[in-house]
Amino acid sequence: MALLLTVILVALVFEYINGFHDTANSIATVVSTKVLTPRLAILLAACTNLVGALYGTAVAKTISSGLLDSKLIPSELGTQMLICALGGAIVWNLITWWFGLPSSSSHALIGGLIGAGVAAAGNNLAVVVLRKVKEGAPWYKYDGLIYKVIVPMFLSPIMGFVVGMLVMTLLYFLLRGWTPSWVSKVFGKAQLASAAYMGFSHGSNDAQKTMGIIALALVGAEKAGTLVQLPDWLQFLKHPMSLDASGTEGIASWIKVTCALVMAAGTAAGGWKIIKTMGHKMVKLQPVHGFAAETTAATVLSVAAHFGMPVSTTHAITTSIMGVGCAKRFSALNIGVVEKILWAWVLTLPVTATIAYVLMRLVRAF
Which residues contact 287 (CB under 8 A, 6 or more apart)? Predict the structure, then answer.
């Protein structure tokens, strides 16, 4: 029972760190364009993250059952595996936050799950679900690491960059007769809506990952009989999954509310180093640019969340900002900063998988 509660606690710590690590995803542009003060921007992000986190559970289901074959993981190692996976993700998030690099919390968690899962399964790579085809379904409804993680990992940044460039190019064409003061005035207000949309999309995608981890831990404990003798005040732990009105199984309400509140609290703590990188160092933004970038990224995230794809909020907004900047001119981008960000992206999965793998091997050794 102590290990189970530790998993839940560590998962919520990850959720909190995810909140302040990814605050920049929601508010970097609205702060850098001076549409909102940092304090008001954080309040907007926290509220919209909270609402978004309560919307849908498709991503949570992918994390809890669509990436690892639980049959190959010894039941007695399940909780330790999750702690090690979360540990790898937390370490990487703190490292990248310290250096102000907007890396992906999503991929950090997925990398941690893969590394810890392989170690828990006795170095059996078959534990990673690569493909689980649903007969007659289109590819985006397939399960497994390839279709839920690898394909979206490359597709979402490309979509962010291309769509961001196209949206900004269209806005340049439509606004060519407007004076700069009118453009700033109109899109200063419009960016409030796009920032709220971005915060909602971030919550609907990122908060669900921790929901999936907690549900996975509790379902495993339930199957192992760990929850049989719970005290009265912990009886709610026995029901990590619930049925909605249509009879479809989903994440229990108390898990969704808890994760939503913790992420909102983390968001309220802020993440100024990453905000500075995304909002100031990468490309100089005006309200119209912020509107285009946030709208593009939020739409990419919303579509991915609908199909249960745990894509990177960071990748979506960063490449959207890049695309918007390139619509102005390619020289508008600070290539040196972009290069550092890309390296953080490339390293996230292997580094977190390695950290979690080593932690799990140490657990098995002792």
Answer: 33, 35, 183, 184, 187, 188, 190, 191
